Amino acid sequence: IERKVAGGRRNNRGPDLARLAVESPVLTTESISRALLITPQASLQLVRRLDSVLHEITGRSRYRVWRL
Known about the structure:
This protein is mainly α. The chain has 4 helices and 3 strands.
């Protein structure tokens, strides 16, 4: 996970999302945006960046849920 989130901008929330994914068994867009104080759209972009690490378990385009 750390290799995937390395680099990027100075205010990168990738490492914070990685810690949150380890702490919590299930993640939603809403839970990510509340925990990291970002918009829901930004949380979707972070999840897309960690697509190979996080796996979607709902199979939907709406109300998605991810896990490690």
